[in-house]
User: Which sequence fits this backbone?
């Protein structure tokens, strides 16, 4: 066959005159760039584009890979091309062919296109896989096994777009990926999905991945169960980056808002108090809490820290019920925490957990364990935990502990305290 003759004796399908194709190629004069120019034309014809994919240089093959008119067999050929740029161009294009493909093309052409997608999804080059993931992330017409492969890719730049946006991933898929201990960026991508359903939110919170939970909290389309939100609130005193996002959640219950208000600083309390979905009772509570919190920071210059105040009281023999009661009445939460920790011989973090547990019984048990009076427990419930009147546990007979020793030991044991 003459070197100027294309395969099968054809230069182009209907739309491009054979003479015009030869003029573009200008093989006889060796004009540079002719093949690349022809490779960009959508009317060049299937045989011509395939010929160029086989025989053209890198730039020509890349142009064919980007050409929407290239046939399925040519695309499949180029998926194995040795040049990364060629495969990258193909990855940019191939997903755009998928919508409505089965209605336009034969089953053989559809199978070839899916095979091309599979080949690109397992490409050795991260760049090619990342391009493909970005192109298909919103699509629901991509075979699910290809989407799953990309979602499970070890490279975050590949997996993240699929994890955040793909409509083909089920809750079960996402939970399995979380369970595999994926990197932080992957969890953040899952937490940013719209929506995130409750089972997935549960698993993200259980992972205790700080940035992922923060992303979940700022996602207005993330559904979070009340019990799961309680787990988050339990941690916000230690994890500052969760405080503002959780305070701004629109789905907080009045109880959750009050718990948050007892744990955060004045600036976030102000944000809470400014919500327009508060009951009068909750708003009054938050404003009272805010005033108390501001008062805590309005101390005389040179005043001792909470740790120094407790240490001085212990040294001087004043670390007793009267000291703790006075601190409680003044709303000095940190002093009360450190004093209880010292008197009960427990870690201060355990004391904080008892105070934020939301119930009076563990606190009453801890005060008993510290050999303090029920009067002290009452003051802590009222001024530090700020429990509603209906939730405050009063003294038995005006002075005694209202729980049996067995019950108090049970509550202490729940927090790892042996009594």
Assistant:
């Amino acid at each position: 066959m003459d070197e100027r003759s294309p395969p099968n004796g054809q230069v182009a399908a209907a739309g491009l005159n054979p003479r015009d194709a030869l003029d573009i190629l200008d093989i006889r004069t060796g004009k540079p760039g002719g093949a690349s120019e022809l490779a960009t034309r959508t009317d060049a014809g299937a045989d011509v584009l395939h010929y160029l994919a086989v025989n053209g240089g890198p730039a020509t093959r890349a142009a064919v890979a980007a050409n929407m008119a290239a046939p399925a067999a040519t695309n499949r050929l180029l998926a194995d091309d040795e040049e990364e740029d060629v495969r990258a161009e193909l990855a940019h294009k191939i997903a755009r062919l998928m919508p409505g493909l089965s209605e336009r093309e034969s089953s053989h052409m559809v199978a070839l296109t899916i095979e091309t997608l599979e080949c690109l999804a397992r490409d050795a080059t991260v760049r090619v896989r990342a391009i493909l993931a970005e192109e298909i992330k919103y699509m629901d017409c991509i075979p699910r096994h290809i989407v799953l492969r990309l979602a499970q890719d070890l490279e975050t730049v590949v997996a993240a777009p699929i994890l955040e946006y793909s409509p083909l991933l089920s809750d079960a898929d996402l939970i399995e990926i979380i369970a595999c201990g994926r990197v932080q960026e992957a969890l953040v991508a899952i937490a940013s999905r719209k929506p995130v359903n409750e089972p997935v939110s549960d698993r993200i919170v259980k992972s205790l991945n700080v940035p992922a939970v923060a992303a979940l909290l700022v996602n207005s389309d993330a559904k979070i169960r009340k019990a799961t939100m309680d787990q988050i609130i339990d941690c916000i005193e230690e994890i500052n980056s969760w405080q503002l996002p959780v305070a701004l959640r629109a789905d907080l219950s009045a109880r959750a808002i009050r718990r948050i208000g007892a744990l955060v600083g004045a600036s976030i309390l102000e944000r809470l108090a400014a919500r327009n979905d508060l009951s009068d009772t909750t708003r009054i509570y938050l404003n009272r809490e805010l005033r108390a919190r501001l008062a805590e920071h309005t101390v005389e210059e040179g005043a001792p820290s909470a740790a120094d105040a407790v240490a001085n009281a212990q040294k001087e023999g004043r670390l007793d019920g009267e000291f703790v009661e006075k601190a409680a009445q003044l709303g000095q939460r940190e002093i009360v925490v450190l004093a209880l920790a010292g008197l009960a011989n427990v870690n201060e973090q355990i004391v904080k957990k008892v105070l934020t547990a939301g119930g009076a019984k563990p606190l009453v048990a801890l005060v008993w364990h510290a050999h303090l009076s029920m009067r002290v427990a009452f003051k802590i419930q009222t001024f530090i935990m700020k429990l509603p009147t209906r939730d405050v546990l009063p003294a038995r007979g005006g002075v005694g502990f209202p729980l049996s020793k067995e019950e108090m030991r049970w509550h202490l044991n729940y927090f790892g305290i042996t009594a």
Notes: The mean pLDDT is 87.
